[in-house]
From TrEMBL:
<dbReference type="Pfam" id="PF02082">
    <property type="entry name" value="Rrf2"/>
</dbReference>
<dbReference type="GO" id="GO:0005829">
    <property type="term" value="C:cytosol"/>
</dbReference>
<protein>
    <submittedName>
        <fullName>Rrf2 family transcriptional regulator</fullName>
    </submittedName>
</protein>
<dbReference type="InterPro" id="IPR036390">
    <property type="entry name" value="WH_DNA-bd_sf"/>
</dbReference>
<dbReference type="InterPro" id="IPR000944">
    <property type="entry name" value="Tscrpt_reg_Rrf2"/>
</dbReference>
<dbReference type="InterPro" id="IPR036388">
    <property type="entry name" value="WH-like_DNA-bd_sf"/>
</dbReference>
<dbReference type="GO" id="GO:0003700">
    <property type="term" value="F:DNA-binding transcription factor activity"/>
</dbReference>
Length: 144
């Protein structure tokens, strides 16, 4: 459903949020290792997220990535998804057709519209804080 970049972006943002709640900045290498992603690919994703103001990047010996604590509770997954994939997850065809709408529907169009609406609702109502605290108490995991 999400692009691979978006999947890694959500994982990275969740890990960075957890570390930020503990007053830690994290390095690119640490993030890539934690989410099991290639370093160069992770760097590209984190750059996109920093450019979209989802997270902050600090250079230098004490640098790294962080998300301001005051922002973690109000930062919704929809913002991360939009920063990486734009609106494609809400607008794309279930079967990948270039043209698919109510006038020219694919065989799954009518059913997929409801699924996309539910997905959008979940993404706009789920905060990064919710995901990070699930990690913190061991209810969820970033890699298996």
């Amino acid at each position: 459903m999400f692009s691979k970049a978006c999947e890694y972006g959500i994982k990275a943002s969740t890990y960075i949020a957890l570390q930020s709640l503990q007053n830690r900045r994290v390095s690119l290498k640490e993030i890539a290792e934690e989410i099991n992603s290639p370093v160069a690919f992770t760097a590209k994703i984190l750059h996109q997220l920093a450019k979209s103001d989802v997270l902050k990047s600090n250079k230098g010996p004490s640098g790294g990535f962080e998300i301001p604590k005051v922002k973690i509770d109000t930062l919704m997954l929809s913002e991360i998804v939009f920063a990486i994939d734009g609106n494609s997850v809400y607008e794309g065809c279930a079967l990948g057709f270039n043209e698919c709408n109510s006038k020219i529907p694919c065989p799954l169009h009518d059913k997929f519209v409801d699924i996309r609406d539910e997905l959008k609702n979940m993404l706009t109502k789920t905060s990064l804080y919710e995901l990070a605290t699930g990690l913190e108490v061991g209810l969820t995991f970033l890699k298996r």
